[in-house]
Specification:
The chain contains 15 helices and 20 strands. It is of the alpha+beta class.
């Protein structure tokens, strides 16, 4: 994919990538494209990390656990000082949405390739962001506007807005700290449990009570903002295929919105409006819940680059990581107006995870073999190599398989071929589950909501019996092709 927006940049900078895996590789490539020095991190837990292959320099961050390494602000600041780092890109996860880290970098004169600390702080708190959204005229899900402290208060709000409701952590995300309640008894039985889960996961046990939208679609809008205040949207993505409130398959554009350009423009402009309200100045994603009648409500804003950003890049032809770096240094993105950004075709992303395809639970292990044989129009952002040890220390996602077609039907067809051509030995992966979903009638029709996996139950159609003859024939064909036979 070429980026037509790459032009003259600032003088070369030394950029530390405070992350690992596929996103660290992706950031390194963008840094090098712009002429900057990409500095990768290796820890005692990952001596042979694949992302280092794409970096110009490597630095050691001592420690074995995330708390000792990627989440250790004092140690990262020490590495920054010792290596004369000019800027830090946090990727996603870890410290990417940590306002204190952003403040510490600013104090030391280091550029944070992310939004400013106040935007992170405001949008990272679901209660505060909901209030800001209301003030900006952005529709929000009916419910509490501030943290709810007692069961009595929660049931009172639920009675006012009507059941079912969602108990939801004020902080955090990733599907944790959320529980649906159908009646008062479920609020009473779940309230303290959700508080404990939220406190454990995010260090904050505060909860919100919101109306639960039945059979919702999860629609998000990618935005990018310059330091001068210009904010652009890059259209929407649909992320409704989820398990335990975590995304599994994403598409751009949304098959649910389809050809309804009025709704598309309305939701995209609403995202821009919200970003402007918080003086946003980097890449970000505004997430919405969309009801069956296509009314939509603000859910949250992720103040970072998203896992699923590649499908937006594929339909717009614009490198979002390059834009993010340019924006951080106050450069003009080369986008004269919103109309300049066009979309073409359809893109799908399947998250490839080391997990059991039936239970969808993490399945750590070691990669003993890795081969690919993809159709034209396939992109595979990954951190896989032979002998890679996938441990419980990190997220089980090991790659993102992306295909693009001139329409959704072709994108799906290419994805089915790409999944057939992806061979990862030694690990259980969710590849068999993806194959079932892409061939399932409701998915093919685009007729799905966030309840898809729990209602359609595609995992029950997954077979764990392997056709070894078919696999060996494919591997033999790959090897013959490599040898020029």
């Amino acid at each position: 994919m070429t980026n037509e927006l790459v032009g003259k940049t600032t003088s070369p900078k030394r950029i530390l990538i405070a992350n690992r895996g596929e996103i660290a590789s992706r950031v390194a490539k963008a840094c090098r494209e712009l002429g900057h020095t990409a500095i990768g991190i290796w820890t005692d837990n990952e001596i042979h990390a694949r992302h280092l292959e794409f970096c110009d320099e490597w630095v050691h961050l001592e420690g074995m656990t995330n708390a000792e390494t990627y989440l250790n602000i004092p140690n990262i600041l020490k590495v920054i000082k010792e290596n004369k780092v000019d800027a830090v890109h946090p990727g996603y996860g870890f410290l990417s949405e940590n306002a204190d880290f952003a403040d510490a970098l600013k104090k030391d004169g280091v550029v944070f390739i992310a939004p400013h600390a106040e935007a992170i702080r405001v949008m990272g708190d679901k209660a505060t962001s909901k209030t800001l959204a209301k003030e900006a005229g952005v529709p929000v899900v009916p419910g509490s506007s501030a943290a709810v402290e007692t069961i009595a208060e929660a049931t009172k709000i639920a009675d006012e807005i009507g059941y079912p409701v969602l108990l939801k952590a004020v902080a955090g995300g990733g599907g944790r700290g959320m529980r649906a309640c159908q009646d008062e008894s479920e609020i009473k039985s779940n309230f303290e449990a959700v508080q404990r889960e939220s406190e454990s996961a995010f260090g904050n046990g505060d909860l919100l009570v919101e109306k639960l939208i039945v059979n919702p679609r999860h629609i998000e809008v990618q935005i990018m903002a310059e330091k001068n205040g210009n904010v652009f949207h890059f259209f929407e993505r649909e992320c409704s295929i989820q398990r335990r409130n975590q995304k599994v398959i994403e598409e751009a554009p949304s098959p649910f919105i389809g050809d309804d350009e009025e709704v598309r423009q309305k939701i995209c402009q609403t995202a821009v409006k919200l970003a402007q309200a918080v003086n946003y100045d980097s890449a970000g994603t505004v997430e919405f819940i969309m009801a069956e009648d296509k009314s939509f409500y603000f859910l949250e804003m992720n103040t970072r680059i998203q896992v699923e950003h590649p499908i937006t890049e594929e339909i717009t032809g614009i490198d979002l990581l390059v834009c993010m770096i340019q924006s951080a240094f106050g450069e003009d993105l080369g986008i004269p107006n919103q109309e300049f950004i066009k979309r073409s075709g359809h893109a799908i992303e399947c998250r490839i995870c080391a997990e059991d395809p039936i239970t969808m639970l993490p399945a750590p292990g070691t990669v003993t073999g890795f081969e690919t044989n993809f159709p034209q129009g396939t992109r595979f952002d990954n951190c896989i190599f032979k002998d890679l040890e996938v441990t419980p220390d990190f997220d089980p996602m090991i790659g993102k398989l992306i295909t693009k077609g001139i329409n959704r039907t072709i994108a799906i067809r290419k994805m089915m071929c790409a999944l057939d051509g992806l061979h990862i030995e030694g690990l259980k992966t969710n590849i068999p589950l993806h194959k079932v979903m892409l061939r399932e009638e409701n998915f093919i029709k685009g007729n799905y909501s966030t309840a898809y996996i729990s209602t359609i139950k595609p995992q029950e159609k997954v077979t764990t019996e392997f056709d070894y003859l078919r696999i060996f024939n494919k591997l033999a064909g790959i090897e013959a092709n490599r040898m020029g036979l």
